[in-house]
From TrEMBL:
Identification of the protein by name: Glutamate dehydrogenase
Domain Glutamate/phenylalanine/leucine/valine/L-tryptophan dehydrogenase C-terminal: 190-432
Family annotation (NCBIfam families): PRK09414.1, PRK14031.1
Keywords linked to the UniProt accession: NAD, Oxidoreductase
Length: 434
């Protein structure tokens, strides 16, 4: 806290992890001797740079560019790039820190990193987005490599942005290598990667519900966001017979009491991924409720899955969800629930899982994309989906192993943090003081 007083999101994420691993940490005096905690709380490296690009009017614009390389003890740095006006170092440091533990949980050899820019693709033309991506990669390419650091997408960075950045990397280095994941299917992308975070989120949710013999079929689900994670969470929910009823973006949310079915989801995908419109247009098209400037947590649902951004469920929202009878909360987004709200869920013994476990499917399939690129092979949809499912099952098992409390309640936060931490700490110890 003294070192990074102006980084609230980073302090929030670190406090959350340290507060849950203490008992396990104290069983390992060798960790204390090696000062593992301090070494984990300071990222290996921060890269900060200016990005200059030309807009459609011929004006030169500047943005900040960042890459936080947090820890590479179990594999090359790996983590997404976020393009959003809210991006700053505190947010990227929290995301890189979380990524290290999440990647550890996936069972695949990947270290943790995160990066991005305060550039927002919203409202920009394709040509502007391309020029920005090229300018961003013109600096970033020096710091990444297939065995060094492999970025991916995140908020504001989808297939279009990854494609432009991949093209620029190739132009600068003359290398066709798996330098980014989330690539197009034609040039090394893995099948199921676009779906992976949302599908994995629902596989994990199913596992949580199974611990209480609850079937997901017929359950009403509150979803926030309307981007990649929200869309594929809804697709899998529909496949399993659940009924999603909300969606949101940074302006507000829609509530569709009849449920967002396959046809409406196809419209959302077109609206958000191609037309790049606002969720308000859904309400206009289908004549349902739209609430400006609010989040969907006051609606009635059995399950909530926040899939937009950090800190979108506060303590009051948690109390409303509990009062409305929510049975499970599964995070598609990273750190969407504030600590006081997590406490509410846990005190009420509600099934609650942190993003580092429930949304790890995205980076897991990114890891599988790296394997396919190294092999110069492409696996089938079924193969990748089966591996994703198995990884989500493993993560759930680890959470149960390390998070089950004496009264039988599974503290998924503790389980995920302890399991993720132990592997990283042991690898750090084995590799000496570096
Ligand atoms: P997208 O950019 O595809 O979608 C983000 C969605 O969240 C949009 O609907 C966006 O609305 C909304 N949103 C963004 N910022 C805010 C905000 N400040 N307030 C309210 N709504 C906001 O991103 P993803 O779906 O990829 O990512 C969503 C979350 O999932 C993030 O937390 C990300 O870190 C996490 N995640 C993503 C993974 C992936 O594979 N994509 C993997 C693991 C985690 P608008 O259109 O108005 O900006």
């Amino acid at each position: 806290k003294n070192r990074f007083p102006n980084e609230p999101e980073y302090i929030q994420a670190v406090s959350q992890v340290l507060g849950t691993i203490e008992d396990e940490y104290n069983k390992h005096p060798e960790f204390e001797k090696a000062n593992i905690i301090d070494r984990l709380c300071i990222p290996d490296r921060l890269i900060e740079f200016r990005v200059s690009w030309v807009d459609d009017k011929g004006h030169v614009q500047t943005n900040m560019g960042y890459r936080v390389q947090h820890n590479n003890c179990i594999g090359p740095y790996k983590g997404g790039l976020r393009f959003h006006k809210s991006v700053n170092l505190s947010i990227l440091k929290f995301l890189a820190f979380e990524q290290t533990f999440k990647n550890s949980l996936t069972t695949l050899p990947m270290g943790g990193a995160k990066g991005g820019s305060d550039f927002s693709p919203r409202g920009k033309s394709n040509a502007e987005v391309m020029r920005f991506c090229q300018a961003f990669m013109t600096e970033l390419y020096r710091h990444i490599g297939p065995n060094e650091d492999v970025p991916a997408g995140d908020i504001g960075v989808g297939g279009r942005e990854v494609g432009y950045m991949f093209g620029q990397y190739k132009k600068l280095t003359h290398q066709f290598v798996g330098i980014l994941t989330g690539k197009g299917q034609e040039f090394g992308g893995s099948l199921i990667r676009p779906e992976a975070t949302g599908y994995g989120n629902v596989y994990f949710l199913q596992n949580m519900l199974k611990t209480r013999n609850i079937d997901i079929k017929g359950k009403t689900v509150l979803v926030s966001g309307s981007g990649n994670v929200a869309q594929y969470t809804i697709q899998k929910l529909l496949e399993l017979g659940a009924k999603p009823v909300t969606l949101s973006d940074s302006n507000g949310y829609i509530y569709d009491p009849d449920g967002i079915d396959e046809k409406k989801l196809a419209y959302v995908m077109e609206l958000k991924n191609i037309e790049r419109g606002r969720i308000k247009e859904y309400a206009e098209k289908y004549g349902v409720k739209y609430v400006e400037g609010a989040k969907p947590w006051s609606e009635k649902g059995d399950i909530a899955t926040p899939c937009a951004t950090q800190n979108e469920i506060n303590e009051e929202a948690a109390k409303i969800l509990i009062a409305n009878g929510v049975i499970a909360v599964s995070e598609g987004a990273n750190m969407p629930t504030v600590p006081a709200a997590i406490k509410q869920f846990q005190d009420a013994k509600i099934l609650y899982c942190p993003g580092k476990a429930s949304n790890a499917g995205g980076v897991a399939v990114s890891g599988l994309e790296m394997s396919q690129n190294s092999e110069r092979l492409k696996w089938t949809r079924e193969e990748v989906d089966a591996k994703l499912h198995a990884i989500m099952d493993d993560i759930h098992e680890n959470c149960v192993k390390y998070g089950t409390e004496p009264d039988g309640y599974i503290n998924y936060v503790k389980g995920a943090n302890v399991a993720g931490f132990l592997k990283v700490a042991k690898a750090m110890l084995a590799q000496g003081i570096i």
